[in-house]
Amino acid sequence: MTSLHPSLGVPATPGSPSEDGVPPEAMHRIPTHQLATHPYPARPASAGHAHSPSLVMLVLIATVGILAYANFLLNPASRGDWLPYSLVIVAESILIFQALLSMWTILSGSTDPREFNFHQAQATLVHTRSVARDGLQNRPERWPLHLGDQPATVDVFITTYGEDLDVIRSTVTAARQMHGEHLTWVLDDGRSDDVRDLAAELGVRYLRRLSSNGAKAGNVNHALTVSSAQYFVIFDADFVPKPEFLIETLPFFIDDRVAFVQTPQAYGNLHNVISRGAGYMQAVFYRFIQPGRNRFNAAFCVGTNVIFRRDAINDVGGMYTDSKSEDVWTSLKLHERGWKTIYIPTVLATGHAPDTVEAYTKQQLRWATGGFEILLQSNPLSPRRRLTFDQRLQYLVTASFYLTGIAPLLLLLVPPLEIYFDLRPMNISTTVVTWLLYYAGFYLMQVVLAFYTMGSFRWETLMLATASFPIYVAALVNVLVGKEQHWSATGNRSKAASPFNFMIPQVLFFVFLLLTSVVAVWRDLTIGTLTLATAWNVTNTLILGTFVGTALHESHSARRVRAMARRPEARRPSGIRTAADGVPASIQAAPTREVVPS
Amino acid sequence: MTWANRFKLFVGLIAVVGIVAVLTIVFNQRQAQVMSASASIQAAEYPVGSDYGGTVLDRLVDDGDEVKAGQALFTLQSPTLQADLAEGLVTADNVAYSVGDDGVLTLTASVDGTLTDITTERGSFVQAGQVLAVINKTGSLFVSADFVLTSGDYARIEPGAAVDIVLPNQTRVAGTMDTLDVQTADGQAETTAKVVSPDLVDGAANGLMAPGTPVTATISLRDDGLLAGASDGLFSFLRTIGL
């Protein structure tokens, strides 16, 4: 009765026999949801709670802006030559569709998934009396967990595939020390004896399989055949969990229909342009989109920082192994079987954002391929899918999201069409001011919205989004022709490849735009007026130029680090692993920041 | 960077430079031309009129008829003319029309051509000086084209410049610029050019070569740009090899 809320019920009811001899401060050390919520000060736009009225207003204004822009584009009176006009219409339709639906999703995400039974289950998760009885007050990682009245068993899987030992070590150490009794496993697909020795040293289980079928999903499925806990957690090798991970996620399973609880991917290495761009690109997704998807019961798993119910995975025949995006596919299968999924925007693990062009390209290609696979092979609107309308809509948004990455390609081609062929997307009578007004209605409002929600607008994100179209085109083509992209193993840091290996299309496009800009300026000088096409083309050239410049910088510093590594007296052995990162150790040691605060 | 990728990048760069070069020449070629804002085929027009008001006794031809010079078109009974004749103010043998003894006026065609725009019917009254019909003179077709030019472009138009005329059925006719009439508004020269061509024959090209047919006229400007020599060379090369 009184011990229902151990954290609130301080001091403990005197006279209870089992609490005799427990010092009050030990009672305070029992973790609860308070512990987890404490480090996060309240923010105006904290998702998972009612949105601030200003956010709602901004979203509404942005919606009006989008609709006005769409109206302007589709107005027959402002239509120009058909080729550039179709390019603009196709690209903007994709962007407008995604923007409208994501704003709707954001507005939907105003409820906290934690209901009464969650709080009740969290309060009784750790039985304080038995903890005290067994003398485990100072060993939180041994606290037995209970859901309702039943003991709950948890396995923690850390999937590795050739990552650096230091990275694995910090993840495994943190995972081992998570509060609540659990068994930690290292699932090594990299078949490294060093990882095996590390697991032995840290006292966690080590699992290596003979085949490598199904990549990460196969790895987890294999582990499920030898483990037995009711719940299992998956961490990528570079995601360092916080101690309260289980305390914050496990209570959701008090609801029998919950299949998994997903937490955000937060990044601690936002030290260069690529990682900042990539990190912030996902921040909106994790802070606003995923919480909104909760309302649609369509929050999907992102493969790491997630806790699953074993019964649910058994129900869908294990993790889905036929795709590189096993996480989204598994979520889809679970939703089809009627399972409920939970996403909480509370940061419970911090990892590494891709900080090289190579890592970024591979990550985006993998994700985009997964999205297009769903769009083309498992159309969420198909009546054969057993999904609710809400879920269909959300999966359609997910599956078509990466089309927005192809839109910049179409838009980049519009100014050269005008420069070389005088083909204009809009009617020649449309003045610059009219156009600017409508354009601002869409894009400026999106920037304002980003500014309000994220606290800042990141040019890196815009730059990366513009420069990444070859990746998404490659992903679409791969899915269309059923080709599998062959690359060396992710995380293989032994040979540092030049970023330019992965960005030949971007370099060529940059050169094309640069030469076109020269022609455009020459043209404007002969005509005697500055045209909008020239202004756009120069802007696009600068954006792509920044990307090429970033890559040059990366390649330059990688070469410098390599040169230093060759001189043995200049580097300590531990420094060698940063060679591929192209990041001076001093920057890596800088205090980390998290992108996705709750 | 691997050598394979270096090679790819190198070939790609050459391709990009090549594409830009071709596009620039195309662009430059277009810079040396101006397309008409509107243009149509027209013919020399000879109005049929009367100096005397009166009642139309008869219309002897129909709209669209081919007429020969001197062919009778209308007969007119004019009380004014009869009064003038009675007073001896005019004589019966005048040039454009013949007057009968009964005072009936016969209007005749002054040139060979096609009759259009008949405005009167038998029995109607016409005022003195009114135009009763128009004759489009045979063999006088020309193109009247309106251009909007910058002053720089205007300076590059040369007398006798080549003009490319495209009929609605995409038939191309070569012409030359004859006369130019210009008005300047908002710093732009609104130019009306008369383009003549020996290939404009009445009723040719499935009847499209007729007055009123809309066409597109593209006038060649004197190319004094940076790439003048290069693009001329390229295009004469393309012509030589038959493209």
Topology diagram in text:
The complex is a heterodimer of chains A (598) and B (243).
Chain A: H1 24-28, H2 33-37, H3 53-74, H4 82-108, H5 116-123, H6 128-133, E1 145-147, E2 150-152, E3 154-160, H7 165-176, E4 183-188, H8 193-202, E5 205-208, H9 215-226, E6 231-236, E7 240-241, H10 245-249, E8 258-262, E9 266-267, H11 273-295, E10 306-309, H12 310-315, H13 326-336, E11 340-343, E12 349-351, H14 357-377, H15 389-400, H16 403-421, H17 432-454, H18 459-467, H19 469-481, H20 504-527, H21 532-566, H22 585-588
Helix pairs in contact in A: 3-4, 3-17, 4-11, 4-16, 7-8, 11-18, 14-15, 14-19, 16-19, 16-21, 18-21, 20-21
Chain B: H1 3-31, E1 33-35, E2 38-42, E3 45-49, E4 54-59, E5 66-67, E6 72-77, H2 79-87, E7 97-99, E8 104-108, E9 113-116, E10 125-126, E11 131-137, E12 142-150, H3 151-155, E13 162-166, E14 172-185, E15 188-196, H4 204-207, E16 216-220, H5 228-240
Antiparallel strand pairs in B: 1-16, 2-12, 3-11, 4-6, 4-10, 5-9, 6-8, 7-8, 9-11, 12-15, 13-14, 13-16, 14-15
